[in-house]
Design a protein that fits this description.
Radius of gyration of chain A: 26 Å
Structural class of chain B: mainly alpha
Number of helices of chain A: 14
Number of strands of chain A: 2
Oligomer: heterodimer
Largest sheet of chain A: 2 strands, antiparallel
Shape of chain A: globular
Helix content of chain B: over 70%
Shape of chain B: globular
Largest sheet of chain B: none
Strand order of the largest sheet of chain A: 1-2
């Protein structure tokens, strides 16, 4: 398919002996070639992204169970969102998760990156081993491990017992179950750390030295020199980590056994959407949930970009 | 792995720090790092150790050592459940390899167009591409399912593989665009002088030079696809088609109790082995890939 559509540029090859063909005819030739190269992406964009988005928007105003055709219900799904107690739980659980886990990951990543950026020995080894968990963190294998560790007679409770503390299941307790999933996400902070570490190496040394000469202590140097230079990376990480955190699913599903329990304390937004859309076949309602999330994330992204000019410094790089 | 590259790291902080017994500071730094590492990696090591232990011992032991190691967990895990894990591993492997192939082909074609060609609406389309990076997948989850259901492709690998042949992973496109952009244009011109069209430039000049970006894309494609849980959960209800994550999850559901954690851990360890293997083999590519692109 793709090779067919590339035919124009291939057959046009002999003509392109002419050395200077930057503008003019080459422009339309470029466009034709671009169409060829972009065909898969354009099809994907139309059929798997934009088309489905539009359809999802339509579905959000309907009741649809996959068996009979969609029935228009106006704003009923959206009004139902705000009177649905489980939607409330899902929204709060997800917000709590985002608000705790994203800053924790960022702060831990920054601290460890600073620690590693000191000409310390074995830096590649440390960096590699700290990074490893972030390759594994999204897997079901690690989620099952977490389920054992924080279970009633799991590794953690056995360790606590050894020093004389009795504790019930961390997963079975609605007060701590979300924390278990937050630790799983924090465990995989290595990829953010690697990004920060790479950023720290770009901080101009002369400015740090100038600050030192001026008598700035380590904290002052960090907040006045290092952090402003890192702010584009921090901005980038806040944005992507937050968007990702809103989409968490696997760990919540596996650790809670698929139901978001106990007492809906790990009913993540995605998990509830999955239950509504695919176990109860309320596809209209699930679509309304999806669009609500899109609007919330768009608002968050917008605010972040608007405020960024006050705290993100692009310097002269 | 832990070679002495200390001299390569910038010595900024050390040099400008007030002299305060550097040895003590160094010892404290290493101690903090080692404690962090032990805390992080202990669960993993414990799981691997547990996978070689009889079930009766798993729940009572905190340590890594055991008096009697056994391969029994691997044997019963491999044969346990309604189907054997060998089948799940094969399915996962097929899906992941096809995903890698699709991403490499589609993302590199798209990236070449954005990095090297001029065409109408380029900026708008590129903005669209970047926009999809931030788009939550929820919004296409339901309609895509309906689409694949209408096409009778539920319970096939197509819904998990086909989207990758249509460059839906914007991150990889972005990564490759960034990489190709900085390749010198003189090379294109030279190839053009030699009679290459765009396809020739793409396949003979740009692709061979983009090997690091291709490698990073391939590795992360494989890892993401290997770890994917929601996709297979939605589209594969036929247990013959299950992937390893689905197998592990059902293992947990069907046995639930503590009786079979040994076999579960054996299979979980086995499922992580390819990822750790890639990590050991390509860790520089992986780490530099994410350090330069911000991709995770």
């Amino acid at each position: 398919m793709t090779t067919d559509s590339l035919a124009p540029s291939v057959t046009g090859a002999p003509e392109s002996f002419r050395p200077r063909r930057r503008r003019g005819r080459s422009g339309s030739r470029d466009s034709l070639a671009a169409l060829g190269f972009l065909t898969p992406w354009l099809i994907g964009m139309a059929c798997l992204t934009l088309g489905p988005m539009a359809y999802s928007l339509y579905l959000s105003f309907t009741r649809y169970d996959l068996l009979s055709s969609p029935r228009w219900v106006g704003l009923a799904n959206f009004t139902q969102l705000f009177s649905d107690p489980r939607f409330d739980s899902a929204a709060w659980v997800t917000i709590m998760y985002v608000v705790v886990s994203v800053p924790v990951v960022l702060v831990v990543s920054m601290l460890v990156a600073l620690l590693l950026n000191t000409g310390i020995r074995f830096i590649t080894g440390y960096r590699a081993l700290i990074y490893l968990p972030s390759l594994l963190g999204a897997s079901v294998a690690i989620a099952t491990l977490w389920r054992q560790i924080f279970g009633a007679s799991g590794l953690l409770n056995n360790a606590l017992q050894a020093i004389g503390i009795e504790h019930r299941s961390w997963i079975g307790d609605p007060n701590t179950s979300l924390l278990v999933i937050i630790t799983l996400n924090a465990w995989a902070f290595g990829s953010t750390m690697v990004i920060f570490l790479a950023g720290l190496r770009q901080v101009p040394r002369d400015q740090l030295e100038a600050a030192l000469v001026d008598g700035a202590g380590p904290f002052r140097r960090f907040f006045s020199v290092t952090l402003p230079h890192m702010s584009p990376l921090v901005f980038f990480s806040v944005l992507l980590d937050t968007v990702h955190a809103f989409q968490a699913f696997t760990s919540a599903y596996v650790v809670s056994g698929g139901d978001g329990g106990p007492a809906d304390s790990t009913l993540f937004y995605t998990l509830y959407l999955y239950q509504q859309g695919f176990t109860q076949l309320n596809m209209g309602y699930a679509s309304a949930m999806a669009w609500f999330l899109v609007v919330v994330l768009a608002a968050f992204t917008g605010v972040l970009f608007l405020t960024s000019r006050f705290w993100v410094h692009y310097g002269d790089r | 792995m832990a070679t002495t590259t200390s001299s390569r790291g910038p010595l900024v902080m050390r040099r400008i720090r007030p002299v305060r017994s550097p040895i003590a500071v160094g010892v404290i730094r290493h101690a903090v790092l080692v404690i962090v590492l032990i805390a992080m990696l202990y669960p993993l090591l414990w799981m691997i150790a547990a996978s070689f232990r009889p079930n009766s011992e798993i729940f009572s032991s905190l340590g890594l050592l055991s008096s009697h190691y056994t391969l029994q967990n691997y044997v019963s895990g491999w044969a346990g459940g309604s189907l054997r894990f060998s089948r799940y591993f094969l399915n996962s492997f097929v899906i992941s390899v096809l995903t890698v192939a699709g991403n490499l082909l589609a993302c590199s074609l798209t990236a070449y167009a954005f990095a090297r060609l001029e065409f109408p609406f380029k900026r708008l389309l590129f903005a669209l591409l970047l926009g999809t990076l931030l788009l939550p997948y929820h919004v296409t989850l339901v309609p895509q399912y309906i689409l694949f259901n209408k096409l009778h492709l539920v319970n096939t690998f197509a819904p998990l593989v086909a989207p990758h042949f249509l460059a839906t992973d914007a991150f990889f496109v972005f990564l490759m665009v960034q990489f190709i952009r900085v390749l010198p244009r003189e090379l294109d011109d030279a190839a053009r002088m030699d009679g290459c069209g765009h396809w020739g430039i793409f396949s003979r000049v740009i692709m061979p030079l983009s090997l690091p970006a291709i490698g990073t894309t391939a590795l992360f494609s494989f890892i993401n696809s290997w770890n994917d849980f929601l996709g297979p959960l939605l589209y594969l209800s036929n247990a013959n088609l299950w992937t390893v994550p689905l197998g592990l999850n059902s293992f947990l559901d069907s046995t639930g109790g503590q009786s079979s954690y040994g076999a579960l851990f054996a299979m979980a360890t086995l499922s992580l082995a390819p990822l750790v293997g890639f990590f050991v083999a390509f860790q520089r590519l992986l780490i530099e890939g994410i350090a330069t692109s911000g991709m995770k």
